[in-house]
Design goal:
Elements: E1 5-6, H1 12-17, E2 21-24, H2 42-51, E3 55-60, H3 67-76, E4 86-88, H4 89-100, E5 106-110, H5 113-121, E6 126-127, E7 151-156, H6 164-174, E8 180-183, E9 189-193, E10 196-199, H7 201-212, E11 217-218, H8 224-234, E12 241-245, H9 248-257, E13 261-265, H10 272-279, H11 284-287, E14 293-295, H12 299-307
Helix pairs in contact: 2-12, 4-5, 6-7
């Protein structure tokens, strides 16, 4: 059972020796929510870990960006990375649809250009991203929407243009029990900067689930499709991998679900009392979200490495 231990001088060497691979969340760990600047000292900490021979992967549930776009952002914020080191929920979803499901047909997407870009890269035909062009027509006119018989898969992600028309369209396709129903992620909320919170992708997915009476297969954290991609495509060993994140229900739950260990940092979504509350719970679901370790910030790991002369 995870115990949510503070990393300090007495246990940091044992911690560092226990893994070869790092999966790190981005928002709230490497940079502050929607901010365009890194958390001070964290880029240097990542460089220290790489100098120690640790492999680093950037793992995000943000489906609005492709891997290539994430590389641009990471490099702008002083994180030296490549596309091979980025695994986002949009990428994980495209890979799951193409390789795990072997789906070759057309896809209706409720989502953003990030999902469209990853499906383009995977060679999967799709439509639906962007404004629906309905222009305020009446409710009865919905029945005039043409349903494409080639669509046997609906993918739902974050979509600023999500509305009743898109909900209706997804419902029509998913009324066919053979139509696949996939979600990039189900995060309940998004950081808006300045302490603000926005509804997350989970709100959109839940609307489609409720209207169809179906449950989506979710590809992003904390679910196994994303972990499977890291194992199959990048050869990581979960037992020698640490997941660093700022959320319990995605980052820490992924660690438990995939047989890894989790390091919670307190620079983002979760407060320490949230984690400690779970340790007192008898719920299995709660136990699977408890971090193995925690730190106020990832920069504190860099300070411990330096103080202990480990690099």
């Amino acid at each position: 059972m995870a115990r949510c231990l503070l990393l300090e001088k007495s246990n940091v060497k044992e911690f560092l020796d226990s893994f070869d691979t790092i999966l790190t969340d981005c928002d709230g760990v490497l940079w502050e929510g929607a901010a365009d600047y890194p958390i001070p000292g964290v880029p240097e900490t990542i460089q220290q870990l790489k100098k120690m021979g640790k492999r680093v992967f950037y793992v995000s549930n943000n489906s609005t960006k492709t891997r290539a776009e994430y590389v641009v952002k990471c490099q702008k914020l002083q994180y030296d990375t490549t596309e091979e080191e980025v695994v986002g929920s949009a990428y994980a979803t495209a890979q799951y649809v193409k390789h795990t499901l072997g789906y070759k047909g057309k896809v209706y997407i409720i989502g953003s250009s990030g999902i469209a870009g990853e499906f383009d890269a995977a060679g999967i035909p799709h439509f639906g991203v962007g404004e629906d062009g309905w222009n305020g027509r009446g409710l009865r006119d919905l029945l005039d929407i043409k349903i494409d018989p080639e669509v046997k898969c609906v993918v739902v992600g974050f979509d600023l243009h999500f509305n009743y028309v898109k909900l209706f369209t997804a419902q029509q396709y998913l009324s066919d029990p053979e139509c696949l129903f996939i979600a990039t992620n189900t995060d309940s909320a998004l950081p808006a900067g300045g302490g603000g919170i926005l509804p997350g992708t989970g709100a959109i997915v839940s609307a489609v689930e409720f209207s169809t009476g179906r449950q989506a297969t979710v590809c992003g954290k904390p679910h196994n499709p994303l972990g499977d991609i890291l194992v199959q495509q990048h050869g990581i060993n979960p037992k020698r991998t640490i997941m660093i994140g700022d959320r319990l229900d995605t980052d820490m739950a992924l660690a438990h679900n995939c047989g890894m260990r989790g390091l919670l940092v307190l620079t983002g979504f979760t407060k320490l009392e949230d984690a400690r509350r779970l340790t007192a719970s008898n719920s299995i679901a709660h136990q699977k979200q408890i971090p193995h370790y925690y730190l106020p910030s990832l920069v504190d790991l860099g300070k411990l490495i330096t103080e202990c002369g480990l690099v």
